[in-house]
Amino acid sequence: MMCPYCNSDSQVTNSRPSAKHPEVWRRRACKVCGNIWTTRELVDLSTTHRVRTTQNRLEPFQRDKLFLSIKDSCAHRKTALMDATYLTDTVLTHVLQQNQSEIPRGQIIKITALVLERFDATAGAVYIATHSD
Ligand SMILES: [Zn+2]
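Above: query sequence and zinc ion SMILES. Below: predicted holo C-alpha cells.
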C-alpha cells in the first residue's frame, strides 16, 4: 500500500484478525518517511453477497446503504456516526453467520431491527417504522 503521507511504498509491521468481525487489522510503516498508520481489511460484500429484493430481483449487497439506514435511525443520538459504524459491523457479522450468499431483504431488515432494538429502543422503533413494507 502507498504511504498516505508521501506516496512511497510501505510495509506491514503488525497484523491481527478480529475475534468478533470478519476483518484484519494491520499496522503499516512507510519505508521512506517512517510514518505509521492502521488499516482494516474487510470483506467486500458487494462481490460475495446479494440481496433478494421484494420484487424478487438480486442486487449486490451494499454496506453503505445499510450504514446510512442505521445512522438515520440513530439520528437522535449525539454519537450517531460512531454508533452506526459499530452497529453496521454487528449487523454484518450476523448476516455472514447466516451462511447464505443470497439474502432476502426482509431477513436483513429483521436482523438490523433486532440489533438496533437491543442497542436503543428509539433507534429500533425508527428503523422498523421506516422499513416496514
Ligand atoms: Zn511516507
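The helical segments are 45-48, 63-73, 80-97, 105-119, 121-131.
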